[in-house]
Write a structure and sequence with these properties.
24% helix, six-stranded mixed β-sheet, alpha+beta
């Protein structure tokens, strides 16, 4: 999410109608609109590495994978939040509104120092309420560190820091060395 500046206020319907034609993505938090940060090459490389590595495991499980361009709608009480995860994996098929999904199985966020607090706290608090979500994975952009939160482990953090550590996603039968996540992404 973007830095905390004065938000623009909009109805969900107006946001969804306008968002389709906007070159710069924005997130919707219960009526408040925030512009997302622009990705740099390091961020994009990490997302591409993960997206590429996940293609076959996702295909074998007949799931759908989206990188950075699919909106996720989250219901929190009476409010709705919409944001763009870096990687979203779901078994949802296209329905009446193909512009967003509501039932992710895995979400991966590549966090910069600017977005880490939001990704680790407020987004995580909302996301873990989604019944379909099994893994929430935070990949640090500025250093080789990944934190994995799993529903089956009561959302307790698992930290990966060594290049020989492996990112495991059991629901996908997926295993990737940390070094592969960060390949070509060093600054």
């Amino acid at each position: 999410m973007a830095s905390i500046e004065a938000p623009i206020w909009q109805t969900l319907e107006d946001y969804l109608a306008e968002e389709t034609n906007r070159p710069i993505r924005r997130e919707y938090w219960g009526g408040a609109i925030f512009q997302t940060d622009q990705e740099d090459s390091q961020h994009s490389t990490i997302v591409q590495n993960l997206f590429s590595a996940l293609q076959q495991p996702v295909k074998r499980k007949s799931l759908n994978i989206f990188a950075s361009d699919m909106k996720l709608q989250v219901h929190v009480g009476e409010s709705k939040l919409i944001y763009y995860p870096d990687i979203l994996i779901t078994n949802e098929q296209f329905d009446s509104d193909p512009s967003y999904r509501c039932q992710p199985q895995v979400i991966i966020e590549v966090s910069s120092p600017k977005t880490e607090l939001t990704d680790r706290r407020s987004k995580f608090l909302f996301l873990r309420q989604i019944e379909s979500l099994q893994e929430y994975i935070l990949v640090q952009q500025s250093k080789s560190q990944i934190t994995v939160f799993r529903r089956e482990n009561h959302w307790q953090p698992e930290s990966l820091q060594s290049p020989t550590d492996n990112l495991l996603i059991p629901s996908l039968a997926f295993n990737l060395p940390l070094a592969s996540v960060y390949e070509r992404a060093t600054s």
